[in-house]
Amino acid sequence: MSAPTLDEIRTRDAADPLNGFRDRFVIPDGLVYLDGNSLGCLPKATPDRIADVVAREWGEDLIRSWNTNDWINAPRRVGAKIAGLIGANDDEVVIADSTSINVFKVLSACLQLDPKRSVLLSERGNFPTDVYMMQGLSALSGGRVATRLVEPDDVIAALDSDAAALLLTQVHYKTGRMRDMAAVTKAAHDKGVPVIWDLSHSAGAVPVDLNASNADFAVGCGYKYLNGGPGAPAFLFAAKRHHEAVFPALSGWLGHEAPFDFDDTYRPAPGIDRFQCGTPGILAISALEVGVDLIAEAGMEALREKSRALSDLFLDLMAERCSEYGFEPACPADSAERGSQASFHHENGYAIMQAIIARGVIGDFRAPDILRFGFAPLYNRFEDVWQAVETIRTVMAEEAWRDPQFQSRRAVT
Ligand SMILES: *Cc1c(COP(=O)(O)O)cnc(C)c1O
Asked: Binding of pyridoxal 5'-phosphate: at which residues (predicted)?
């Protein structure tokens, strides 16, 4: 079967029910942006929202805003909106801190659920911060807690009576491989192991149903598919059944039952509020809320359908138009097993990515050899996919990537 022509692709864009959303983002002219899985585009409504929070809420209302502009409830208000995207209840999600810090919180929570268990389990090649946080907790425990990493396909077999938590990223950041959340969670529960899902590449990209899967905890980023802006605050999900069992290791004052009692003794707040720590960044949460509202308006089912079609088209066009250049797919061939991205191995991956970025197609590179392209169905068009593949083809045919300027690695790849 041959891939569609550019005319057919333009017809698809015209018929796309989500095509109106692109105009609600700032997209630089001529740029094909396939990196919304690292940093989502700027919603056009965000600058005005931030300006209002700065000038009016901060500038004029000042400290009163904690009450009058509901700043104090912002982490719960936006958390509830994200809950609707990931199959959680409104009182099970809160915005707080970064994903890394939230990983620490939920790992330490799992260690409290059954004190006889002392192994934190994950897969080799998981996103580094998840694994590093496990190693930090092991060090902090003075030898009680161990970190164990196994090959991705051996995770289920490694579940045992020592495991205190299984931490997995649902959509793998490099390969895009998507885990069956319900099946993995069930297998872990059969062995008495709680599961933490890192949803950094899932939230806003694929429909997630945490409660239907009986998940225990989850975390995820606000700056990727949720379009919350660079370093946007993260979210944390804890299943209601665990709330009262956890004495937060990061027992900050805003997770206290009565912060304004200024008591000498920490008493955890009831429910999800105990997973808050210190004063939330209101400017950043305001930006995140704009991004989350756009995703919620589009609806996860429609986003997923288009996302699958975008990544399928990319893989088909790469197979048809770039087959002689040595790209080896690194992602599952079946879109049902793939998140909203496509990735390829190539020995010259870094230089090729730099060369296509110089021609206005932005993806990213993940060591040692992966070119990664994210598809954000809110603003990416089918024509963007065509442009990206044509640019890759030209860079390969002209061997433009051999230029010395594309060889040296910058700090952020
Ligand atoms: C992007 C990403 C993170 C990032 O964590 P930060 O604390 O925001 O730097 C964590 N986990 C996964 C799986 C990611 O893809």
From this structure: 99-100, 127-130, 169, 198, 201, 223, 253, 279
What is the tens place of the pLDDT at every residue in 93-120?
999 999 999 999 999 999 999 999 999 9
pLDDT band at 1 (very low <50, low <70, confident <90, very high): low
413: pLDDT strictly greater than 90: no
Averaged pLDDT, 140-153: 97
pTM, rounded to two decimals: 0.97
User: Which residue out of 200, 224, 226, 235 has the highest number of ligand 1 atoms within 8 Å of its CB and is therefore the one to mutate?
Assistant: 200
Q: CB–CB of 276/75 below 8 Å?
A: yes
Task: Indicate the pLDDT class of residue 411, thresholds 50, 70 and 90.
Answer: confident
Peptide bond into 270 cis (omega under 30): no
Is the model's pLDDT at 2 over the cut of 80?
no
pLDDT digits (tens, 9 = 90+) for 300-317: 999 999 999 999 999 999
Q: Whose CA is nearest to atom 14 of ligand 1?
A: 200
Q: Which domains does the chain have, with CATH numbers?
A: 6-42+299-406 (3.90.1150.10), 70-297 (3.40.640.10)
The answer to whether the CB of 99 is under 6 A from ligand 1 is yes
pLDDT the model gives residue 409: 84
Pocket test for ligand 1, best of 35, 38, 95, 100 (most atoms within 8 A of CB): 100
Cα 6-8-13 angle, rounded to 5 deg: 90
Ligand 1: centre distance to CA 200 (Å): 6
Instruction: Determine the Cα–Cα distance for residues 377 and 303; give it in Å rounded to an integer.
Output: 6
Q: Is the beta carbon of 201 within 6 A of some atom in ligand 1?
A: yes
* Residues placed in the known binding site for pyridoxal 5'-phosphate: 99-100, 127-130, 169, 198, 201, 223, 253, 279
Catalytic residues: 127, 198, 223-224, 372
Q: Determine the distance separating the centroid of ligand 1 and the alpha carbon of 175, expressed in angstroms.
A: 15
User: Is any atom of ligand 1 closer than 6 Å to the C-beta of 105?
Assistant: no
Average pLDDT score, the chain: 97
Check whether 410 has a pLDDT greater than 90.
no
